[in-house]
Specification:
Distance between the termini: 109 Å
InterPro entries: DUF7029 (IPR054293), DUF7223 (IPR055647)
Radius of gyration: 31 Å
Number of domains: 2
Mean pLDDT: 77
Order of helices and strands: HHEEEEEHEEEHEEEEEEEEEEEEEHEE
Number of strands: 23
Protein name: Isoamyl alcohol oxidase
Structural class: alpha+beta
Helix content: 10-25%
Length: 512
């Protein structure tokens, strides 16, 4: 006969082997089902890309392959609505909520210390669970590689815990820095297969071993709120709502493009500013190996002032995109659980041409104070936008008669990248807003109507335009439109245009 300790070890080893076999059989049985669901979810052209993306992400570990300007570590924080003196918290329960937020002790490494952003994780576990931090009568916790010892300071609480915990064949215990059980910024998840109460010391010794969330959870729901986008500068100033205001300005008279001897394009001014805040939700079903829901809500304020000068020495055309910075992320990390990478980038698109030597000055001031986009990464049909009401003031001037096209569009891209459980889920999505203005100057134009927007030019130009409304004479025809588009996307999965509009501003003669 085996000694008692050896027999117990053999039993545990046999149980572990049986559990491993069950997991492998379950995964094999559901592999074809999961493959079919993917084919039903995505278009044929998307499936290969999506499958490769998941394969790469599942092989990855922290950090994800997104550039980061700073990292904020979220750690365990007190639950806002839990009464730790309530004896009901001693009774194991299957559904639990855990809260994470920025850590005041992480001031040296966190750009967001003191902010109010938060992440709430709701878990439905395979076994009843006790969260020790929700019990104020727990005096101390001590952990070894195969045990968790919980000491109580109250006899009634000890007796209730001993009675209710002993009723469970298997128990999950969650620790939070009451002893030596957890890594920094992490909670400990332990599977308990037996408990031994000691009335004299008021301790309960749990025969336990650490487990990963993916091995003990049936479902996981993450709610994240007031998560800010990144900044294009290294200095961050946070307001109490945990939204990050940020701005980017080009140096005055920055040369954007030069094609000697034909063309030089200069930004006399280019200022971008915005405030972006993310919230969202993730729901993962471990038993079905399926991401049930993943969406982001993006609240945005955006403003830009752009003024360009183009000096043509001869007929020429040029199109280009000027991006002051790549998408910059400010990672938010809950070690071992999730990384969120909200980011931001600004850009400037220019399409300009002239039929002869001429100097052109054009610009746009635009502001959108109330934009919101709901981005459903799993279903583009559930993605929608509200707000995004722009106010704008464009201008344009030319030095000589010519056929000219001068289009300028500013752009802001905001994106949330998410890495869940070390690559189990690795997806991103967001939006790109592109406000802009098109200017067309045309020689030999006969105008059929007078613009209703003549009051947006000088009074002298309006009078000249009225006197020559059927012909430009020695002038050129001038047509200007405000254009705006708003696109939402889930990287490598889909993209869709939510808003696309063009507003005629004026169409009349430009006289010299």
């Amino acid at each position: 006969m085996f000694p008692k300790a050896e027999a117990k070890l053999v039993d545990r080893l046999g149980a572990a082997i049986s559990r491993l076999r069950a997991i492998l059989q379950y995964r094999k049985r559901h592999r074809e089902k999961l493959s079919q669901e993917l084919r039903e979810t995505f278009e044929p052209g998307q499936l290969e890309t999506t499958t490769n993306a998941y394969a790469q992400s599942c092989a990855a570990n922290y950090p994800p392959s997104t550039p980061a300007s700073s990292t904020t570590t979220f750690g365990p924080v007190a639950a806002p609505n839990i009464d730790t003196s309530n004896p009901a918290n001693l009774v194991p329960a299957a559904d639990i909520s855990l809260y994470y937020g920025s850590m005041g002790s992480d001031a040296a490494n966190s750009a967001y210390t003191g902010s109010t952003g938060s992440i709430n994780m709701n878990l439905k576990l395979a076994h009843s669970t006790v969260v020790l931090e929700y019990i104020d009568t727990v005096k101390a916790v001590e952990c070894t590689h195969d045990s968790v010892v919980v000491e109580f300071e109250d006899t009634t609480a000890f007796q209730m815990a001993a009675e209710t915990w002993s009723l469970e064949e298997s128990l999950i215990m969650i620790t939070n820095h009451l002893g030596n059980c957890d890594a920094e910024f992490e909670r400990g998840f332990f599977r308990v297969d037996s408990v031994t109460p000691d009335q004299h010391s008021q301790t309960i010794t749990c025969n336990a071993y650490k487990e990963q969330i993916s091995h003990i959870a049936e479902t996981c729901q993450l709610h994240f709120s007031s998560v800010p986008a990144g900044t294009l500068t290294k200095r961050l100033t946070l307001d109490p709502s945990f939204s990050v205001p940020f701005s980017k300005s080009l140096a005055k008279d920055t040369v954007l493009a030069s094609v000697p001897p034909y063309l030089t394009i200069t930004a006399n001014e280019a200022n971008f500013s915005s405030e972006i805040t993310f919230s969202g939700y993730l729901y993962y079903d471990f038993w079905a190996f399926k991401l049930r829901q993943l969406y982001f809500d993006i609240d945005a304020e955006f403003a830009a002032d752009v003024g360009l000068t183009a000096n043509f020495a001869a007929a020429y055309n040029k199109s280009f995109t000027y991006a002051p910075s790549d998408l910059t992320y400010a990672l938010i990390n809950i070690p071992g659980i999730v990384q969120l990478g909200p980011g931001i980038a600004f850009g400037l698109d220019v399409d300009i041409s002239a039929s002869t030597a001429v100097d052109i000055a054009a610009g746009l001031s635009v502001a959108m104070p109330d934009g919101n986009v709901h981005v459903d990464l799993l279903d583009s049909l559930n993605t929608a936008a509200t707000g995004w009401t722009p106010s704008y003031t464009p201008y344009a001037n030319i030095s000589a008669q010519a056929d000219i096209r001068a289009d300028a569009n500013t752009s802001v891209t905001v994106e949330m990248a998410l890495n869940f459980l070390g690559g189990l889920i690795d997806l991103s999505g967001g939006l790109t807003a592109r406000p802009g203005v098109t200017n067309t100057f045309m020689l030999d134009v006969n105008l059929a109507t007078e613009s209703p927007y003549k009051n947006m030019t000088t009074a002298e130009l309006a009078r000249k335009s009225e006197a020559n409304k059927n012909s430009c004479g020695d002038g050129v025809g001038w047509k200007t439109d405000f254009v705006f588009s708003l696109d939402a996307f889930a990287t490598k999965l889909w993209s869709t245009t939510l808003v696309e509009l063009g507003v005629p501003l004026w169409d009349h003669c430009y006289q010299f």
